[in-house]
Amino acid sequence: MKTFKIALFSLFLILFPVVLYNCGNGDEDPGKNSMDIISMDPESPSTLKFDDFVVITYNYNIVPEDGARMWIIPYTDGDKSPEYLYSSSDIYTGSGTRQVGISVESGTDPVNVDQLKVTMVNPDQSETYIETFINVDYTFEN
Q: What's the mean pLDDT when you consider all of the chain?
């Protein structure tokens, strides 16, 4: 069921593309890798039902010509959130805007997502370009 939900959300992102190429706000340093979150829907703090998604929009700039992969993963108390869901990543190049989702699957106890881990790696994932944490407050419950 988890794989189906991830596939369904990924299909949504493919069918309704929000990936925009070469449309950054012009403030990015073309010589620097970056991932800058510009919005989260719903905004933090929020309480959501299990399996509901927080949709995160960010601008990115990727310097290496071979591109990079990017993830945003929910964290709880310093570890990956239990039963977390996130959007996978193809290889991206250049600059643009991307929209991804994070969620927590059904459980018995509420789960508080208190950080988002923002990561950019090279295509074979052997080198990390960006790894940072952003404080948030999302509670997932029945």
A: 86
